[in-house]
Amino acid sequence: MKNYWEKAITFEEYIEIAKQRLENPDNPKDIEYKQYYELGLQRIDRTLKKYSPDEDQTNELLSKNFDGKILIISEAWCGDASATVPALVKFFEGKNEVKIFLRDSDTSLIDQFLTNGTQSIPKVIILDKDLNVKNSWGPRPKYGTELLMKFKADPEAYPREQFYNDLQLYYAKNKGKDAIQEILELL
Question: Short name of one Pfam family for this protein (predicted)?
């Protein structure tokens, strides 16, 4: 885990890489994902502007005396990540160090934290102070997973577009609170 932590980047670097990939895509995937980078950056910006830490959650974090680190496997083009990662970074800011590992740069880390056999992101890895894995969370809060299951159960009755819309509305209203609460319970 130490090697992954050392290769991970700051949230600021994560944003800069996303902007660079949007403005100057240099490979077929970045060209194909251009619209997703644009949406992701807009969602990240919205979350940063609207998010403020919940006092009860902050007190809960402090009461746990968690002295570890948070490693997030992510990519800025991901809708779940763009709604969740900025809130997590802001929540832990000044309390616990948070770094981001770009999933697509080296899939050996995400392959250790698959969700139902998939490389779904974001994946939050909770590390102790010695960088041992304490727990993991992701890729979305329980309510988001329930929406996904509803879509998968009957895409005819609950089409993909409606699922995506409902999920992004939930993220916009919830502002990361559910994700943070679920992670707090794992500390």
Answer: Thioredoxin_9
